[in-house]
């Protein structure tokens, strides 16, 4: 091996030789050169790369992002991969990326394009015969529309041709896998993998789709130990949103696969969860109060500016938000409740007026109902992935990684189709694995909408009819998902699921949790209604310039639609609140939750049998 193969390493060691930590690395490197021990001491060379990487990261993020240094950082990884390709890599992990998708072909295309670019710039595992040898994608299709199914198959084929081994796991393949199970096994697992009805085997939900994917993974990798299963959502991308001080950029700042390999290789980690940046990972049903605060602030600020004056909404981007700044009930999760409002940061480029900014905001405001939060998007805040490792209690189902043997932990209670499935699963895994379940600073970019329409391609629980948006299905699933989650939290404190609890204890916990959550939602309901009254008073005031400005008449209908949809979903007569207020419906849902909790131990036993069966029928 020659020094020419270490050009980027040499350059960076020289460029940062003023740093004490780099000087010591350079001394080690020069000693290897002097002793001509490249061939016999390749591992020592690789360790210099590994030790230099966090130092360069610190320099990249010492202020706002240093994009020139980021490019060298990416080159450094590609050079390292060339070094590693000269020796056996059997100890490194293969990574299988599982993407459940339902009628979101454009989201899927964006996700996989980002993956391909990530492979180009970091080259984890290197290439063999033009293919990324250690990366595989499994697309688990839950689409209803035939057009989506056709497009998703084509997308799989396209990326397979681009060098990423891409497997399409469609509904026919899923049904075949399920029907190969013994009849009794299949019947007993309805709550886990759904009812295998070929005439209606779509929109089963992400949890059921993931569980069926677990069975497929067990079939594909029955005994292989050096493989990681990496679950991501189709509306996410392998890059991050960063704050440059005056705007935001989306960049490939994280070598996800390198860090996952290193963490799982050097620690006792069995399950790792990351988070997301960009759009919040929660439902609009629990963000309306915070968003109304920010919309009110926007119009209060607009009152003090002239329509035709230069836009005044280009202050520096605010500091990063905490993990739940967008959540109306963040205190439920242990976060300190923050009362301040956040300003809107205008993203129009070039000289423009306050009226132009208002028009742009009008075009974005109704994206809220698809899960965007125009004033509280999060950005990447650098912390070394290794130093960020800490015990976890929540699985972000759009960004989590498990060792191959951990398919034992299916997504529980999947047939209930409740939100908060990941946090609920996280409480179970935490009680079972302890320090083997961790989180790390490896977030993905979350984009709720596609640029072409400003809406999500498909979002379960949100129904549209012209300009009317109905959140009631998602709202209901959020409410009872919270009941399930916090019931689980209380149950695990009593030893569940390892300890079988009497049904009357489980019932007592669920009912007490339901009463607490109900009270919380009703208080928030009252606050939202008060905020709506205040916003309407400002928005529709005859004294405000936006009511008389001729260019704003058409965009203003966007604000009217926003108000109408908030009233339709958060008013006293909304379908969502009628469901929540219904004692009969709450009792029915709570009964389902209790029965599911009591059946979990049996589900685990049958699941083990299913894993055996799919392995035997490979």
Rounded to an integer in angstroms, the radius of gyration calculated over CA atoms is 26 Å
Helical percentage = 40-55%
Report the strand count: 17
N-end to C-end Cα span? 43 Å
Question: Which whole number gives the mean pLDDT?
Answer: 90
Major beta-sheet overview: 8 strands, mixed
- Strand-pairing-aware structural class: alpha/beta
Strands, helices and their partners?
Layout: H1 7-15, H2 20-35, H3 42-60, H4 67-84, E1 94-101, H5 105-122, E2 127-128, E3 131-132, E4 135-141, H6 146-161, E5 165-169, H7 171-179, H8 183-188, H9 190-193, H10 206-220, E6 227-232, E7 236-237, E8 240-243, E9 248-251, H11 256-266, E10 271-273, E11 276-278, H12 288-303, H13 354-365, E12 390-391, E13 399-403, H14 421-433, E14 437-439, E15 444-446, E16 463-465, E17 468-470, H15 472-493, H16 503-539, H17 553-570, H18 575-581, H19 583-616
Parallel strand pairs: 1-4, 1-6, 4-5, 10-14, 11-15
Antiparallel strand pairs: 2-3, 6-13, 7-15, 8-9, 10-13, 12-14, 16-17
Describe this structure in words.
The protein is of the alpha/beta class and 618 residues long. It has a domain at 3-84. The protein is 49% helix and 11% strand. It is built from 19 helices and 17 strands. The chain has helices at 7-15, 20-35, 42-60, 67-84, 105-122, 146-161, 171-179, 183-188, 190-193, 206-220, 256-266, 288-303, 354-365, 421-433, 472-493, 503-539, 553-570, 575-581, 583-616, and strands at 94-101, 127-128, 131-132, 135-141, 165-169, 227-232, 236-237, 240-243, 248-251, 271-273, 276-278, 390-391, 399-403, 437-439, 444-446, 463-465, 468-470. An eight-stranded mixed β-sheet has the order 5-4-1-6-13-10-14-12. A hairpin with a 4-residue loop joins strand 8 and strand 9 (248-251). Helix 3 packs antiparallel against helix 4 (67-84), helix 13 packs parallel to helix 17 and helix 15 packs parallel to helix 18 (575-581). It starts with 6 loop residues before the first helix and ends with a helix.
